[in-house]
Amino acid sequence: MSAMTLPENTSTATPATAADRREPPLIAEERRMLEAWLDYHRETLAMKCEGLTEAQLREASTPPSPLSLLGLVRHMTDVERTWFRRVLGGADAPPLYWTDENRDGDFDLVEADFATDIATWRAEIEVAREVAAGRTLDDTGERRGSCTACAGIYVHMIEEYARHNGHADLIRERVDGATGE
Fold it and tell me: Which fold has domain 27-176?
């Protein structure tokens, strides 16, 4: 497999709107359903960030916790990168935002910029799609010495987004009172 790289200019992506998010099918072939649910949850996170200022996106949920909407975007960027590039694709793709010395670096927003970070997240999603498109649901990758099926990665990613979208709901409500799906 050829090496995949992020686009040079990652500052033009924008967050999703409610119109971009499609309801996933409740009856469909397995792969189509998994991909649709994952995309639904990806767009939900983007929607939670829509219309906020940089300061609002950086606002911590409940200090001293560093959890913020911008931090969640950065966190999910590295989650996409880990599970699709590294585990399924076997690529040497180190984390972008955290290190062994700073495991919560994705929530350290000193050098964060929403436009850049959401564009990087969207680019990682595109790479994830490319990696997964070349695999069957039964194909495996390795994580921490254990095999993981592509289907299992989809299920894990849906769970990861669903959990963090719950956090995003609460953060967004705290930031500006907006509630919703």
Answer: Four Helix Bundle (Hemerythrin (Met), subunit A) (1.20.120)
